[in-house]
Design brief:
By secondary structure, this protein is an alpha+beta fold. It contains 3 helices and 7 strands; from the N terminus they run βββααβββαβ. A hairpin with a 3-residue loop joins strand 2 and strand 3. The two termini are 23 Å apart.
Length: 93
């Protein structure tokens, strides 16, 4: 059974070159998430982020990852991407 209601509580590292974030979640897990599937062929707001060099300006908004142009990523979706990724590195804090 999937647990919903995760929140990102801290952005620990931003790798702009590889479109990867190291995040701490509300359950104290620390996980890496690749956003390459969004930013390697960006459209719409994701394309604006790259054109404006805004990737490193991401921040936490009510537990989600957000950018100044209004683009947001749901923390539950981000968490699911980390769980589905075979290259995800996870540890409990």
């Amino acid at each position: 059974m999937k647990k919903w209601g995760n929140k990102v509580v801290k952005i620990m590292k931003i790798d702009e070159e590889n479109f990867t974030l190291k995040l701490k979640f509300s359950d104290n897990s620390i996980q890496y998430v690749s956003l390459n599937h969004i930013f390697s062929k960006p459209r719409g707001l994701a394309a604006e982020i790259l054109r404006g060099n805004l990737f490193k300006k991401c921040y936490i908004l009510e537990g989600a990852i957000a950018w100044p142009n209004g683009f947001e990523l749901c923390p539950d979706a981000i968490r699911q991407w980390t769980l589905n990724s075979s290259s995800t590195r996870t540890r409990a804090a």
